[in-house]
TrEMBL record, chains A, B:
This is Transcriptional regulator. It comes from Companilactobacillus versmoldensis DSM 14857 = KCTC 3814. InterPro entries: BlaI_family, Cu_transp_CopY/TcrY, WH-like_DNA-bd_sf, WH_DNA-bd_sf. The keyword Transmembrane helix does not apply. Keywords: DNA-binding, Transcription, Transcription regulation.
DNA sequence: TCCCTACGTTTACATTTGTAATCTTAATTA
DNA sequence: TAATTAAGATTACAAATGTAAACGTAGGGA
């Protein structure tokens, strides 16, 4: 619920493995990460350790090798992550930033349809203009 | 063009002042930031300094107090920032992440319209499904 | 002209992160 | 059972970051 802890970039890549597998051992992570990074085994182990300390990963210690499971759902983590980043953007620029993301991302037809419905609804109550808030309260 | 340097969160908030003002002195930044943070003056000065070192801010030193100007455009910085973050997301989840952003952001009617047009065009060539790439190359 | 002060520069220091080596211990095999 | 190995834990260390104090100096006012 209240995960104030923030996930590092490197840690994020480790979590993606466990999110996708559902669960796994450290050697699973090491194996898959070898495909996309040139991290040494020790590096992955460190990352797994830090992820545990931050309570993003929980090991089942009843047997060895431990089987690690994500404590936080991927969708929840993504939600927190992208919104935290957007919080730091100028309000006025968020629309264009989203357009930029749409342009640069592969999106399935289904997701596009969902998005268009969402936008259609949102348009009803959308403001004419969103004001910049970069200079703080008036 | 090739700004490999990354902007810290705190630095980002300083840049927003100069982006919005176009240019300004350190006391401008200190003044406006006092409205949204409880940073000491010294903190803002440090941040300005680091931003210079990273070549995000350039001072006009022909007179005192220096007048600082952004070296990188806000739109460009936002572009780099949001796309870098999206690069770290699972391909398959990007669509939903954008929907999440749309839901949680104030967006003007104009931007919504632009977005819908963009989506309409994008839909023509959109894939049925986007595959997860979290486990690396096949 | 001299001092004060605002503002730029340097130094400080704890924490987080990237990246890894090493140590320890449980488990497997000879 | 002894030796080897795999994997978890501890230690390492530089760079970046958040946060700020202290220092030095040019320019304005007494």
């Amino acid at each position: 619920m209240n995960n104030i802890e923030t996930m590092s970039d490197a840690g994020w890549n480790v979590m993606r493995i466990f999110w996708t597998l559902g669960q796994g051992t450290s050697s699973d992570a090491i194996m898959y990460l070898k495909r996309k990074t040139d991290w040494k085994e020790a590096t992955v182990k460190t990352l797994i350790n830090r992820l545990q300390k931050k309570n993003f990963l929980k090991p089942d210690q009843s047997a060895r090798p431990y089987v690690y499971q994500p404590v936080i759902a991927e969708s929840e983590a993504i939600h927190q992550n992208v919104n935290r980043m957007f919080d730091s953007l100028c309000c006025m620029k968020k629309g264009k930033a989203i357009e930029d993301l749409i342009s640069n991302s592969d999106i399935s037809k289904g997701d596009i349809d969902d998005m268009m419905n969402l936008l259609k609804a949102k348009r009803e109550t959308a403001p004419e203009k969103v004001e910049c808030d970069c200079l703080g309260e008036v």
